[in-house]
Amino acid sequence: MSNFTERTVPPDWVEVQRKTFTRWCNQHLRPTGRTLQDLEGDLHTGTNLIYLLEELSGTSLGKFYVKPRSRFEELLNVTSGINFIKSKNIPLVAIGPEDIVDKNQKLVLGLVWMLILRYQIQKGNKDGKMKSAGAAKNELLEWVKNQVKPFGVECNNFNTSFQDGQVLSALVESLKPGSVDIDAIKRVKKDDKATAFANTKSAIGKANDLFDIPVLMEAEDLVYPLKPDDLSVMTYVSYFRDYQPKDKAPVAKAAAPAASSGAGAAKPPATADEINNSLRCLVFGQGVEVPEIGRPNEFLVSIYHSSDKKPYDPSPKDKVTITLYEPTGDGKFKPIELPNVSPSSTGQGHFKTSFTPKQEGGYEVLVKLNGVPVKGRGRIRVRSSENDVLPSASATGVDPKNCNATGEGLKTGEVGKDCKFVIHTNNSKNEAVKHGGEVFNVEILDKSGNRVPNVIPAVTDNQDGTYGVTYRVPKDGEYKVSIKHGSAGTPIAGSPYGPVTIHPRSGNQIPIDWNNVKIEGLNTKVLKNKPESFKIIPAGENGKKITEGGEQFKVAVWALDPDTRSLPVTVNDNKDGTYTVSYTADEPGRLKIAISGIDRVNDGVEKKVGTYDAVCAEGELDENNTEITGDGINGPVYAYRENSFVVVPKDGNGKFINIDPQSDLVISINDDTGKPVSGLRVEPESEDEISKGYRVFYTPTKTGKHKYSLASKKKPFKNFPRELEVVEKFDPTKSYCEGKGAEPKVTTKKPMEFKIVTVDAKGNKVTTGGDKFEVKLKSEDDPSAKEIKALVRDNGDGTYYVRYSVPKDGKYKMAVTTHNGTKHIKDSPLSLTAGVGEDFACLEFASFIGEGKPLTSTVENFDVEVKGPNDHFEAFSTTDIDIGRYAVNFTPTSGPGTYWISVRLQGNHITNSPFKLEVQGYTNPAAQREGATESAVRATRFGIKPVIDGKTIPDFNPADWTTEVRGPPKLGHKLPAKLERNPDTKQLAVIFTPEHNGLHEVDVKYKGKHIDGSTFALNVKTVPGEPIIDDNDLYEDEEEEQKPAAAAPKAAQTAAPQVTRTKFPFTAKDKSGKEIRTPVKGNKDWEFAVHGPTDQLVEGSELTEPNPNSANYGVIFPTTQGNGVYKITVKNKGDHVQGSVFRVQVGPAAPAAGAPAGSGTPGKLVQFPIKTLPEGGVGNQADWKAEVLGPPHRTPEDVVPGVQLNFDKVASGGPVGVIFQPRVPGHHKISVTKNGVPIPGSTFNVNIPPWDGAPAAPAAGAASAPSAGASTQTKTKLGMRREEEEPSVTKTRGPAWRPIPGASFARFTFGEQVDEEATNKKLSELPLEDLEVGVVSPEGKEVACKIYEKTGVIWQPQVPGDYEVNVYIKGRLVASCPWIVPVSGNQDDMYKSATVKFSVLAKTREGKLITGKGISKSMKGGVKGPNGEKVDCKVVSSSEGKGEEEGRFDVVWAPAGPGTYEITMEHDGQLVAGCPFRIAMGESRGAALPQTAGARTEEDAVDT
Asked: pTM to 2 decimals?
């Protein structure tokens, strides 16, 4: 018998898909020993996702967190996985790392489906390209059609076509003819679900047994649903397409003799290297899936290639051994080498064996090939039950030849009634077996020996060595019973049994009309624990009454709450043609009752009678105990607003009962004229807890008495009907408007705002919301103009926010109404005059998560920043317009132009932020009124949030707050400033009038403590035509530099140098590195002196006070001794501060002999620090040499003269300084050697910005220097953009990333750089959310860029030259920035070959050249790719000069893709000097583009 009626409720497609996809994942995770139980829960950490991707692709994803300890680490794992998926051109639409970490079920299923589509359904694509799901579906469907067409079976889709078992059975038959009786299966009728279930189950089992196709789906997943899940079916069916029988397997290549081996040469056995690097193994089979104690469990081992998953073709000399590690119970394992390991016929590279477990536990499997372990150890979990009875050690197996069957069902029976018999099992010694677990296949045969269709015997394992069998046949006659054991199908003794005589049925002989079966007495409302019964009354054709029993009816009753489960049901044959069904519901909730019967006339086909819904309650509804509560039924009740009350139905014992509110409650509410109220509806009070009752909503549309009637279907509830007075919540005639938007004069096109204040009849303000208002404006000048409808938002406190905008000047009437537009509030309609008013700008934006849910509840949760032209930050206010809609309002004080509004949430930009707003037609009304000139300095308002330690300060007592503004022309120059607070936005504004353009510092303190963000940096430009002044002393971490003297007139250039006062800034630290922050004035701890080029003391020098809250001091001295090096000594408490004695070059250094004089004014003196010293430290200073090459780096004339080395700071742990004075701006290369060997990092790169009077940068092939303001010293706050294409916690600066088609890419990896200023860690070790990256072009413009490989940046250069890469840590620029990345102007010609050659002048660490003929063969090269992967390379003698005979070698490799490559070279186990070298490979149209990103090239080495 079929167990069809055990599953009347169809399964949810989501659960079917989850089960199928989970099993598919587990198939591929087997080699890792990992198993998914909960798809979303087991993928959300990213660990299993990465393991899965590595198994699918055969590619390592690199390092990841195996056991992530935080959400951040989980996001990193998942991000790595998603980036890898995208790198394989697998589309992921709207799926981000957060979705996987947050266990978003549908998106997790979507991600797994894309993997199935790529690696399962489309894995056979010859071109390897990803096809669309539709194309892949059509291709697979066409294959199925061609496979089943010869058997006369049609397949039109991947859902309903698979419900009757015919397509699956035909697929099995197509792969192995003779395995399925396809003709018998085709005769099954479409509505015979029982037989369809049996046939489908049989086809799935045979596919697993014969072809090792995994059981991804169950028969119930295909037969029962109204429409099976297409994606699950496609996944399962694809395994049939991919099956290759052994006689059809593509083994020709393996069998063919190798050309070099000669005819008949045998394939050599696998080597240890091949096994370790190329092969993996997989353990599978029934003995792994469902192993049983005490009996042999056969399983298979597959050995395959890890790269392409193809099976390994074994050599005759290969030897496979399998060791089973059996648990001993004390936490240890006992190794057992399994015997009889032999090749399996299931597929190439498959080996079979078996084991007999004696106890439950985890067994480990180790596979060896030729004595070498194959990666992919398997695990087998053996479980036992309470009924397990271990057989004796002498006899454990079942011998089919000694098994037999007994019972009446093997002799006689009756049509339509159960025929029963029992199978008895014995072992080879004919001893009775006392345990279950065997598999028997029982079939009923006709006289000719053919299986009787639609008769499926039910076999029950009694767990004692016996098996009960029950079957029914639809027709009388003689039959035989075939009984076979196991998958081998061995007949037991006496099989087939028979003949079995089936007699005609007794009782009813009238065929049932299945469309005329009546159900009598079935209650749809039942009580808990109360027995229920109803009758089934069948009738014959034309309603003919049936008076005899003998029919078979099946009834299933399912309780759906709280969990779906079946209830016990009995069907009693009353022998009078009726059948009584009895059951008892044991829990309150929903019920589903399914009734079907067996059509004995139609070969036993099951006929559906009907499916019925019912509800079980604790008891009967008691009108006196039912609770009805709430203001909506007890008062006060308000007109024109929604009121409500709650009905909690209870029984006579006062317990809650579940009812159908639509049919069990009779509710009417009418006004004094008998008119019903509007909006009457009933909803569950709580979806999660139905026991809270049902809430009734309604909206009265008039005041006065209303009649309330509440009743059950039997009688009214207690205290009903009743009357209630409906009143007004507020008095419209006393409610009013307040705010600028309600004043007589408003501004055209500007969003105007006001609020409605509701007041009750007694004149008290209403403090709760819930009323409805309409605000409409109508032009009085143009009656045909469209009516303007304002936005109205309920604030929930009795006030209502209103926002509108009028499009043009003129007179308007504004009506503010309520009560469905029937009543005006006080003073409505209002008269308004719109015209030009104050300057304004407004940005409105919306932000939702989806399905109408706002990103945040209030705009106050956003971090907003408004930046106008010239990087001027504007004061602003924010407004909550409506749910998910917000506004930023500000006065554009910087004039017309482009304004950028940044909106961030938790540090990240929202979508499309920063927003671009073009402000037109700016005028300065104050200037016009007062007759001020265009160059007049405007007052500046700097808006800030009053936040300290992350908390907003609610109060504003002016006595607690202080502010100070310092600005140009000189650091420390204080400007008058005051603080104001906006009462609406709670933001502070610092108001001051700058005297000059440029960088200003703004301090804001609360009770003497800096608020968050203070000191603020503000780049002010209020005076047109005046350049921005960058104050060199604004930041603590600037390099030492000297302010240049003013350029002398041409006629006076030969005169004596002009005496100027020069300031030298420094950071005061003691020997331990601790900052010194003590005042100078009156402090005897400080000593200083300045000596000029003549070594004479410089008079008139002074030591300045430090900057506020810093250790930044300065020494100001006159240049009375002319140009040259001035020495500055600074001591505190008798000890030198770090860096003292300082050396400062004033004026140009003496030119080198023969060097041409530069044109124009020389640049500032540059001191470049070298912080990484070679082995052995400084040593002899005379061994050091430095050279600086300026642009365009072509001729000896580009060498900068007068380069000096400064070792004064080395003793106190400071760097070696390279001091030079550039003659032209642009990219300079600094080469430093010790004993002729380049020190680590040489050649260094530094970009020199232009200066006043600087000569023009070289034109031919040289990089354009950045414009003023784009140098390394410019650290003004810039807008950040969150990467949108690939979510990343690292932020970028500059315009939005929008890739330019066809343009080349440049990359730079900064993860190995060290934050020496603070953390002393590599940047790759810092939290990514702390990092921010920006790129500046040679023209000084910010370049759109994005993050790649976590700590790298990519951009598209539009002009050749030197690009600056800056990295910020929590807004602080890394001290070694900017890093200079030169980009060639002829990218397409730079690299056209498929390989890369990197030339090295090889020297030992001692500086000795490595030379010799043929020595390149002993040189060992190494190349690591962008992800740390090993890249094959070779070392050859260089083609330049005499090559290896003079120490020149080339490392040659083929780059796999763009990114930074690391090159090493060894000789006699020692790295050559300068290793490792790095080179960045970019992309260009049709060719790879090598770009040096701080890398040494051969040219650098040779020049050094």
From this structure: 0.33
